[in-house]
Design brief:
339 residues, alpha/beta, Rossmann fold, Dihydrodipicolinate Reductase, domain 2, 2 domains, 7-stranded mixed sheet, 6-stranded mixed sheet, 8 helices, 31% helix, globular
Length: 339
């Protein structure tokens, strides 16, 4: 791979910091690394390849210095600066939801639909939400083998899905409540400490949340099947890291549990629990600090009372690993095909 200069936009956020750490541990690039963020972070520094790099102001950054930009920022920031980076000839990989539903912008999960990169020399790549990354890796091999006719998923998402401020709110509320002090929700609509909220994102007039609708639409795009019947319920739970998904699917034709396990084990990014070992599942605390895989799949079993139905349990450190590792794989494929 040719040497490329890289910038991480949003270097002081949760995803940005995880991305810098992943780049530091990889052999992705030997070029220059630039870190930029909002004005509030100017002067901060991050270690990269054993040397400190100062965080620069995004408003003043010259994108012509780099060949690849990772945008790990809110939608509004991507909307304001991605076009500027593109106009400087820089390729962009965007974590935000800003371009996820733009038909001219590929929405990529490496190993699932990355063959799209062979069709054109894309300058901008959108990345799906980390939950869609995990789900697509589990669903795609089953769908190709026996056609999935219905998907029902409930997600259980950590407070870090709302960023650093979400984690701070859980810590603050927990401390206050344990010390008999009052709390005032700021990031979440209700108390999150010692509580569960059946809402992630804004509630739409339809009754669905923005996260639920986003997950449905992103899965359909990544799996290139707009007819997929998908129902999603997204739940906020009081843990800092680690996402869980309870997945039920129906297939057009029968498929054996052992066959499903075999299909999933062909993907090195998935860690599949043995069906004959108990307990045959993972929990968030076990996967957050593990390097054995991006996504853990267990409790794979035939559904009770549903013909051709399967139930699965999926766990990942979605914010810090699933999304970031997908971004690195997509970047390597993008650069391999174009630079």
């Amino acid at each position: 791979m040719n040497t490329v200069n890289v910038v991480v936009v949003g270097a002081t956020g949760a995803v940005g910091e995880a991305l810098i750490d992943a780049l530091d541990r990889s052999e992705f690039t030997s070029g220059e690394m630039y870190l930029v963020a909002s004005e509030a972070s100017i002067g901060a520094s991050k270690l990269y390849k054993k040397r400190p790099i100062l965080v620069e102001d995004l408003a003043d950054f010259d994108f012509s210095q780099v060949q690849l930009a990772f945008f790990a920022v809110p939608d509004s920031v991507s909307r304001d600066y991605v076009e500027q980076a593109l106009s400087c000839g820089c390729k962009v990989i965007d974590f935000s939801a800003c371009y996820r539903q733009e038909n001219t912008v590929p929405l990529l999960v490496a190993g699932v639909n990355s063959a799209l990169l062979e069709e054109d020399d894309y300058q901008l790549i959108a990345l799906p939400d980390s939950l869609a990354v995990d789900l697509s890796q589990v669903l795609q091999p089953i769908h190709l083998n026996t056609e999935i006719t219905r998907i029902n998923v409930a997600t259980y998402q950590p407070v870090s899905s709302a960023g650093r401020e979400g984690a701070k709110e859980l810590a603050r509320q927990t401390s206050n409540l344990l010390n008999g002090l009052p709390i005032e929700p700021q990031i979440f609509p209700h108390q999150i400490a010692f509580n569960i909220l059946p809402q992630v994102g804004e509630l739409e007039p339809s009754g669905h949340s923005s996260s639920e609708l986003g997950l449905v639409n992103e899965l359909r795009r990544v799996m290139d099947d707009v007819s997929l019947q998908i129902s999603a319920t997204c739940v906020q739970v009081p843990i800092f890291y680690g996402s869980c998904q309870a997945l039920n699917i129906e297939t057009r034709y029968p498929i054996d549990v052992d066959e499903v396990i075999g299909l999933l084990r062909e993907n090195a990014n998935l860690k599949v629990s043995k069906s004959d070992s108990l307990p045959n599942y993972s929990a968030p605390l076990a996967v957050v600090d593990s390097d054995l895989g991006d996504c853990y799949v267990g409790r794979i079993r035939a559904s009770v009372g549903i013909e051709n139905g399967l139930d699965l349990w999926i766990v990942s450190d979605s914010v810090r690993k699933g999304a970031v590792n997908n971004a690195l794989r997509v970047a390597k494929l993008l650069l391999k095909s174009s630079l």
